[in-house]
Amino acid sequence: MNPFDYERAADAAGAVSTVTDRPDAVFLAGGTNLVDHLKLGVAEPDLVVDINRLELTEVEALDDGGLRIGAMVRNSDAAADPRIRRDYPLLARALLSGASGQLRNAATMGGNLLQRTRCVYFQDTSTPCNKREPGAGCSAIGGYTRYHAILGASADCVATHPSDMAVALTALDATVVVLGATGERRISVTELHRLPGDRPEQDTVLEHGELITALELPPPRPGASTYRKIRDRASYAFALVSVAARVDVDTAGHAPVIREAAIALGGVAHKPWRARAAEAVLRGAEPTAETFLAAADAELEAAEPLDGNRFKVPMTRGAISSVLAELTGVPEALPESTTEDTHE
Amino acid sequence: MSDLLTTTAVGTHQARLDGPAKVRGLAPYAYEHPFDDPLFLYPLQAKIARGQAAHIDPSAAEAAEGVVHVLTHDNAPELADTDDGELAILRSAEIGFRGQYLGAVIATTPEQARHAASLIEITYAQDDHDVELREDHPASREPESGSGDDVRTGNVDTALAEAAVSIDERYSTPMEHNNPMEPHTTVALRDGDELTLWTSTQGVHPARATLAPILGVEQEKIRIISPHVGGGFGSKGLPHADMMLTALAAQAVPGRPVKYAVTRQQMFSITGYRAPTLQHIRLGARTDGTLTAFAYDAISMSSQTKEFPEESTKPGRMMYAGDNRRLTQRVVPLDVPVPSWMRAPGEASGMVGLEIAMDELAVAAGIDPIELRVRNDPTTDPDTGLPFNQRRLIDCLREGADRFGWEKRNPQPRARQENGWFVGMGVASATYPASRQPGSVARIRRTPEGFEVSIGAADLGTGTWTVLSQTAADALGVPIGQVDLRIGDTALPNATVAGGSTGLASWSTAIVTAAQELRSEHGADPAIGAEAHGEAEANPAAEKFALHSFGAHFAEVRIQPTTGEIRLRRMFGMFSAGRIVNPTTARSQLIGGMTMGVGMALHEKGELDPRFGHVVNHDLAEYHVPVNADITDIEADWLDEKDPQAGPLGARGVGEIGIVGAAAAIANAAFNATGVRVRDLPIFGDAFLPT
Amino acid sequence: MGHSLHLTVDGQEHTLVVDSRTTLLDALRDRLGVMSAKKGCDHGQCGACTVLVDGRRLNSCLALALTHDGAEVTTADGLAPEGEFSTLQRAFLAHDAFQCGYCTPGQVCSAAGMLAEAADGAPSVVTDDLEGPVELSEEEIRERMSGNLCRCGAYVNIVTAVSRAAEESR
Fold first, then answer.
1. Statement to judge: residues B120 and B260 lie in one domain
2. Are B518 and B444 in contact (CB under 8 A)?
């Protein structure tokens, strides 16, 4: 760990101004990702501005019926907030799917959004990585890619975004409130994170020195919603694939019809993946097992899996259809029998 | 056969005597003894897998704040013996594996040491490396340090061709890492010509006996202290390079303790691991399932730096009969870190292939897998021809089946579905040798309060503090409160390593012998200060009997067919392990072994990247061991028995057998649930998804 | 680069000078000699370093010490003031909820924090009704204790111990 200066920020504007003026300065919130990276040498700031005492810790009702969550609200406190549990259960479930009880007590809402990838090569400074060192090359391509992207990746980077919470916020069409040196701006969560393209070092559209001060949730929308995480362990593991979904079914007519669906996927791309193609198939369709699979297939048409993660395509397909079945009460389609199949 | 000890404390529940200190966090592990003015070490590690560190420039580190010394092969102390490639470190610029130690920085604070190490420029001359294990590898050869020759009896090929039922399959186990929760740690202090190491080891005396000749000093000049060990599972059984590096560093800064706790990432290349194996198994049987042909060809990865064979064929030698037999064990030395002991080395990996193969044979023959094993239970050891001490595998299978509810199993795969999950049951046998090592010595001294019992044994969570106190109490015929046990220090009498499930049998024999000596030398009521020694000899029964423990694992798993998720639902293990000295700690060890077996089955795999030569998922976020939520319901029990061939306690040790066969039971349950046969561990959900 | 820091650890007040890089865990172990908090991975991946900071369970390895200037830190040792074991610690002893003991102080602190969270009504990912009361079933305990690895495999006994302690303290 390189030596660095340490300052405790007294107010958000001061923190933003301090970091803006120092190209190698960083904000420190919950620390669960940054302190990890300081030890690994992945982050090498010369100044750490600690924002833990900023008063960005309120969860407040908005006039439009939505909710504003301060950026320094801890993940566990957000998940336990009665309004979030009642009106945004997929957000509560996504938060509770992440990390561990201890980590959620430290991790903040703003910091969770800005987590960096868990790509093992990104985290290992002894291997080349374009995200860590632009132009160095991508070690994941041709390497260990179990947790890597199948959608929206580039020749320079196949990393995934590790957050569960961000996937839920993407399905919820949340907005991020950002304070910069020139003032405040609002960014849709769906626009916050980038695809890697030829600049994988840039995770988000934020400029250096910009600070997330709050998240805003639109008023609760009708329908059933949930968050489902598929992982190698039963807990305390990053997602292989996750699905945040809300489905609103009109049951008034002769046959039920899907009025609206919002789906976001985790573990499959460099950013939380809003599944617009799947949503388009669902909108106006009858909720059946076949419809759900068709929706999943529409989204996965663009999938470009790597040698190490081909399984993610059927896994994502199964996860989407399974979640939609659960939310609509439609029986799930089982894959055809593979008796006496073998796995080599 | 030895006379069995009359017991009062042995065989009964006794809460861990080290428990009160441990629930407060006050039992001192290696790093945690009080030290004055310590220094901190951070190592330099090779970033190539083969070649030379052509130039190491320590100047930037030497100039950094707080740095006291930079150790490299240019200035490292001479070694007296360099035969052990793993421990003879810092000899030259040569690099044998990625992660190999190239030096160390010693500084006043841990932050300074780590930062200074990152400033050191190393220029490499890189050679091509080879880290890929494959069956047809040209370097494949018989192990030099193997435990047995090839077996070729009868004609396997003919018997297989003529067999009514046969299977011919390939199985593999991956690189697995011990990952005890306490990272390997050494604090070394050189004081004059004496060296003291506070370290985390499964054997203080064996560690000293290994290090002393390499360092070129008399054993008496080295003291090793290790009262509490935060888990080991074999990785702290043999000293690894981290202990040597700290010892060398201490030579450079006499008078000040040097502290080095290996980081979790470094453990993946420095502190040993279970080598991956490739297993080719062919079984031939009559229509009734009795084996006629048994062929088992196995290969394990080893290191160019030092050989260690993961002998997965070991249990195949004695588990099942068959007139025509062939067993071969090969190793492929590669440019990889040095493998070592991991819980039940050989048995744990071997009983994956063999016990899945037996399940496949049962399916092929249309016979219940328990019945198949019963029909192939040999009366004498197929390997040595000796009679078994107690071979109660069938009892374990049958009693276990009753307790588990095996009769509810539908032999047809995909027959049972609950809430959208396929559910299946599987069984597998367990076995582990019952060995006793000679050479442990106990000293018992009468004190005003009772008896001081001293032996350099180790407690790595195994319950040694407790069970040896129970043993001493019965050997002396006094309440346990009168026993003052001392372990984990070379200042105490010699003890053999806590490994191979030999600790209890070996150390308890020394204690019982010492108690007999005390009585015979000093009478029934020895005077205060009276003392006696007792030494454990080799077990004479080992000449006449094949000494083994047995067991049976039963697992129920559920698998979500649309997402592939696989989860353990419940597991039960029934064991025959001789007398159980402390049912509380023994149950914990057995359940613990089974829990690690769940990891082996469903989670654990070191991903060795062939391009770089190191394990890239080298931490506990990416290398998965089971978490609490993965272990829904595990129970273990044992047959009520004593083994008169095992020693005065009649106990055989339970440290390893819990993991042996556990993973196969889960793999077999997964097949029963889904009809998908997974032969390569671990079983990820991918296996159950359409491709 | 020394920075002054004030901590109350297990009821004892300390003022110390630390490097800006020093974590709360290293401040405890290397500066104050408080060894009850353990270092298992140093990256928030094992939970051995879990302590209570102002009553909440945290991984002390992923916190800079300076962030917690003025905080009250409780380790497993602090849960047994004057050697008087907490209900949880007695349950861990009674149910053999550990083997090597290295993860144990973190497990105990985590369980203490977890019971407080549950008492406050905080749900977990396995809670069916996010708005209903929290019943600490074994499934709930397993999920909520999953941030603490135990390589010896004492999980089933840990769940029993925590479950009994929860019943007793209700």
1. yes
2. yes
To probe the interface with A, which of C21, C129, C138, C145 has the most A CB atoms within 10 Å?
C21
* Contact call for B622 and A337, based on CB within 8 A: no
Instruction: Please give the C-alpha separations between residue B649 and each of A218, B655, C66, in angstroms, as whole numbers.
Output: 71, 16, 55
Residues B427 and B484 in one domain: no
If you count residue pairs, one on B and one on C, with CB atoms under 8 Å apart, how many are there? 187
CATH number where C128 lies: 1.10.150.120
Residues of C in contact with A82 (CB under 8 A): 131
CA distances from B205 to A324, B238, B379, C168 (A): 62, 11, 39, 45
Nearest to A100 among C63, C123, C146 (CB): C146
| Final residue of a structural domain among B270, B289, B308 | B270
Q: How many residues are present in chain A?
A: 344
pLDDT band at A302 (very low <50, low <70, confident <90, very high): very high
Residue A337: pLDDT over 60: no
**What domain range includes position B494?**
19-28+436-538
Question: C41: domain range?
Answer: 2-75
Q: Does C122 touch chain A (CB under 8 A)?
A: yes
CA distance B306 to B86: 6
How much is the average pLDDT of B61-83? Answer: 97
Among the partner residues A6, A8, A235, nearest to C143 by beta-carbon distance: A235
- From the list C19, C47, C66, the residue facing A102 with the nearest CB is C47
User: Which pLDDT tens digit goes with each residue over A145-185?
Assistant: 999 999 999 999 999 999 999 999 999 999 999 999 999 99
- Tens digit of each residue's pLDDT (9 = 90 or more) over C80-136: 999 899 999 999 999 999 999 999 999 999 999 999 999 999 999 999 999 999 999
Task: For helices C155-168 and B583-602, give the axis angle rounded to 10 degrees.
Answer: 120
Task: Inspect the interface and report whether the beta carbons of A144 and B684 lie closer than 8 Å.
Answer: no
Structure tokens at B652: 């055989």
Q: Which residues pair with B165 in a beta bridge?
A: B285
Same domain, B239 and B360: no
> Are C45 and C65 contained in the same domain?
yes
Rounded CA-CA distance B267/B614 in Å is: 12
**pLDDT tens profile B383-411:** 999 999 999 999 999 999 999 999 999 99
Return d(Cα A339, Cα B369) in angstroms, integer. 18
- The verdict on ipTM greater than 0.85 is yes
- C70 interfacial to chain A (CB closer than 8 Å): no
Cβ-based contacts under 8 A for chains A and C? 111
User: Do residue A230 and residue B630 have CB atoms under 8 angstroms apart?
Assistant: no
**Catalytic site residue B418?**
no
pTM of the predicted protein model: 0.98
C44 and A103 within 8 Å at the Cβ level: the answer is yes
CB A127 to CB B612 under 8 A? yes
CB contact under 8 A, C152 and B181: yes
Of A120, A144, A315, the CB nearest to B563: A315
What chain A holds in terms of domains, given with CATH numbers, is: 5-50 (3.30.43), 224-328 (3.30.390.50)
- Count of the separate structural domains present in chain C: 2
Q: Are residues B294 and B425 in the same domain?
A: yes
Q: Which residues of B touch A319 (CB under 8 A)?
A: 562-563
Alpha-helical (H) ranges within chain A are: 12-21, 34-40, 75-80, 82-87, 89-97, 101-106, 109-113, 165-171, 189-192, 276-282, 289-300, 312-328
Question: What CATH number does residue B409 fall under?
Answer: 3.30.365.10
Residue A343 pLDDT level (bands cut at 50, 70, 90): very low
Give me C88's structure tokens: 């949880």
B413 and B312, same structural domain?
A: yes
- Determine whether the interchain pair A230/B563 forms a contact, defined as Cβ–Cβ distance below 8 Å: yes
For range B500-526, the mean pLDDT: 96
B483-486 and B441-446 beta bridge pairing = unpaired
- CB of A1 less than 8 A from some CB of C: yes
Whether residue B135 is contained in a domain is answered as: no
* Domain final residue pick, B242, B270, B298: B270
